[in-house]
Amino acid sequence: MSLFDIPSTPGEPKRPLAERLRPQSLDGFAGQEHILGKGKPLRRAIESDHLTSLILWGPPGVGKTSLATIIAQTTKADFVPFSAVLAGMKEIKEVMSRAEHTRRLGRRTVLFVDEIHRFNKAQQDAFLPYVERGDVILIGATTENPSFEVNSALLSRSRVYALKALDTADLVGLLTRGLRELEVACDAAHLEQIAIFANGDARTAYNLLELAASAAEDGQITQETLAGIITRKSLLYDKGGEEHYNVISALHKSVRASDADAALYWLARMLEAGEDRMYIARRLVRMAVEDIGMADPRAVEQAIACQQTVHFLGIPEGDQALAQCALYLSLAPKSDAAYKALKSARDATQKHAAEPVPMHLRNAPTKHMKQWGYGEGYRHAHEYGDALTGMECLPESLAGAEFYQPTNQGVEPRIAEKLSAIRETKREFYKKPTSGQ
């Protein structure tokens, strides 16, 4: 029995369907074949009772709590559920003291910490000595990337297993069990509709089925029944978590790859999940300057116009501007030459001494500065044909350096032609004997 088990009392309300149908063994566990299939390392460790502390990482409703419970039952260990939302350092010490006492009596404790990412570093560190001594087998559950949210000392003492969202077939199987428990009927097509809407989350699927059953007439769930409870699909998307960055990365890389259809899909995912529209607009501006750049200098104009339109119109009208901009950027010619040029110039600032600004490039607002040579040898571009002076504007150690290398995309071939003429003029200028520089 768990330290926190509470005996049931006659006449108490039924527990939610998801709780009543929680799997009791690995054979009844849905999905996660990549880690729990026959012969997989985690399954072998559980069945052979050679378990170490582990972190279960995955989206909501995929069975993290159920798996921890099964592990405790299979290994004949005491199961202690622990919530990082409700507990603090005092509760951690109390539970650990009990676990240490239990170990001395010859029993092990599986400590299941739900939402372990919500514990701060000091709280996570409090588990370390007990994990190292073997007082507890720690099973942490998190929806966030453990690399970012679980401290390295705890990670080094645990195995991380990534759980996947359940597929439609897995959810339909669970829902079929739910029908028997609820004693209602439902067509396979309607079960699949619930499964698709649940978006890989078994808990959501069970809750929808239970709600549909309560609204069903004559014990039959119909399309009309579902229409009353399924209004809008809930997408897995945490604006402050990893999925937020995964989806914006997918949008950015789709635009970079000129895949307009994929860009629209990922944009729609963000819009449907309620992402901050100005955040999307800012990222589109970044795509314009980073991935299109000089191949289509108007791309950044379009992106800024999009940002202004979104700000002016708001939701939902501004969403169309985001879609239009994503399409424009996807279909525009691509060049990262300007991006690379800046990186190259920055590298030069690190590799070379920060030389003084050449005298001919300095202003001379006072008589003394003119006497000291400020501005001497400066060539005013407007006094030369095509405004090409051949004057070197880099420090001496970098004279002749070429950071920007245009591509053959979009308008850059024309830019390359102009740039080539400018650089040739500079080279010709340095072949002639000059004065004042």
Task: Characterise this structure.
The structure is a single chain. By secondary structure, the chain is α/β, with parallel strands linked by helices. It is 51% helix and 7% strand. It contains 21 helices and 7 strands. It has helices at 17-20, 33-36, 41-47, 64-74, 89-104, 121-125, 128-133, 146-149, 152-156, 168-182, 188-198, 202-215, 223-229, 242-256, 260-272, 277-292, 298-313, 317-331, 337-351, 367-371, 412-431; strands at residues 54-57, 78-83, 109-114, 136-142, 159-162, 185-186, 220-221. It is elongated and about 95 Å long.
Topology:
Elements lengths: L16 H4 L12 H4 L4 H7 L6 E4 L6 H11 L3 E6 L5 H16 L4 E6 L6 H5 L2 H6 L2 E7 L3 H4 L2 H5 L2 E4 L5 H15 L2 E2 L1 H11 L3 H14 L4 E2 L1 H7 L12 H15 L3 H13 L4 H16 L5 H16 L3 H15 L5 H15 L15 H5 L40 H20 L6
Parallel strand pairs: 1-4, 1-5, 2-3, 3-4, 6-7
Helix pairs in contact: 10-11, 10-12, 11-12, 14-15, 14-16, 15-18, 16-17, 16-18, 17-18
Keywords for this entry:
437 residues; alpha/beta; Rossmann fold; Helicase, Ruva Protein, domain 3; Zinc Finger, Delta Prime, domain 3; five-stranded parallel β-sheet; two-stranded parallel ribbon; 7 strands; 7% strand; disordered N terminus
